[in-house]
Structure formats: C-alpha cells, structure tokens
Amino acid sequence: MSKLRERSDRTSYPFSEQKYAQQLEMVRPSSVGVVDVPPVPRGYVLRQFRGDDERQYDELFHLAFEDEGRFPEILERTLGGGFFVVEHLASHELVASCLAMRGSTSPRHAEAGQLGWLVTDPSHARKGLGTIVSASVTNRLEAEGYPRPFLGTEDVRIPAIAIYLKLGWRPYIYCDEMESRWRSIFACLGREFESSPE
Predict the structure, then answer these.
(1) 178-189 and 158-166 helices, crossing angle to 10°
(2) Which pLDDT score is estimated for 193?
(3) Based on the number of CB atoms within 10 Å of its own CB, is 10 exposed (0-12), middle (13-18) or buried (19 or more)?
(4) 129-162 pLDDT per residue, tens
(5) Which residue stretches of the chain are H helix?
C-alpha cells in the first residue's frame, strides 16, 4: 500500500522505501553557468508560487513525497523568486514544481544553496515540465551566486537524476558505497559514469 496520498482522479508515484542510510548527493560546479529553460508547452504556464496555491501545492507534493509538515520549512528556506510551479491552465492544477533554497540539508554543503523537491504530476509526464522547473531553479541558484549548489536525491528517482545530469549537476562521492550506487544509475541511463571534480 502506498504511503503517498491517493486521489481517485490523480495518480501518485509508487512509494519505495529507501534501502540506504545515506542519501545520494549532487553538486553543480560554478563553471557550468546558466542553462536554457525549454519553452513551456501550450496549455501550461510557468510561474511563481502564490499564497493561494498552498492546497494545490500540498496535493502535488504528496504525489511524490510522503514527508508531512514540511511546508513551513519550505517557505522559510525558499529564495525570493525561487518557488517555481507549472499550472495546467485547463484544470488550474499545479502539475510541476521545484525550489531554489538557501542553505542545505546536508552538513557537507551547509551554505551551498539547494535545489529541492522536484515533482511532476505523473499524468502530465513526458512534456518536459520537470526539466523546465529544474532549469529555472538551477539558474536562480546561479543568479544568487552560490559557487557549488547542492541537491539530495534517491536511487529510485532515475528520471529526475537524468534531468539533473542534463543540467550540469554531477554526483558527489562522499563515502565508500556512493560510487557503486552511482555506477548502477549511470548504467541504467546508458551513460558513462562521471562524478563531480573536487
């Protein structure tokens, strides 16, 4: 049984227990620079979160994450102009989101700035919405001047990792088990393994 919230008219991602104690981490060297944000498909709009979006965002968030009670922290840590959402114009539902956040949840990147909480509604997949919001966040972190921003992710989030790699994020190897985990992910993506330069 999924621990994620289900609505009869909206599908969540299958819940998967993380089998490792340590989360995967990625960093983005400052030398990479800004990225192109793909055009938003017809019928959608990219915008910033608004105060009346909280219920909509909560529903979207829980299609991918089981974490409860994170919204106050999310609001507190999100940079101004860093709370990107995509709205589906026909339904007025939020269908993708990603955040540019100050500070970090990792002690290895305490002041780095963080890309956080990428989620796309599965019923709106394969439209590039995850890339649009992630690229927007990546550029917001770049504009803030963070020299090496950070993100945390899980081994099962292969589509998200594919987006991050395309945007110049690289694996950060911080303990012995990390390289083998990353090599498995790269093999799954049909890519040759590469980690972040120190």
Answers:
(1) 90
(2) 92
(3) middle
(4) 999 999 999 999 999 999 899 999 999 999 999 9
(5) 54-61, 71-77, 129-144, 158-166, 178-189
Per-domain boundaries in the chain: 37-150
Q: What's phi and psi for 84, nearest 5 deg? A: -90, 135
Beta bridge partners, 40, equal: none
CA gap 39, 37 in Å, rounded: 7
Examine the pLDDT at 85 and tell me if it is beyond 80: yes
Q: Evaluate if residue 84 carries a pLDDT over 60.
A: yes
Residue positions counted in the chain = 198
Greater confidence (103 vs 179) lies with 179
CA dist 169 and 166 (Å) reads 7
**CATH class of the domain whose range is 37-150:** alpha beta
Q: How many CA atoms within 13 Å lie on the side-chain side of 146?
A: 27
Output the pTM of the full model.
Answer: 0.90
Task: Measure CA of the first residue to CA of the last residue in the chain; give whole Å.
Answer: 42
CB–CB of 144/119 below 8 Å?
no
How confident is the model at residue 14, as a pLDDT? Answer: 53
DSSP state letter for 73? H
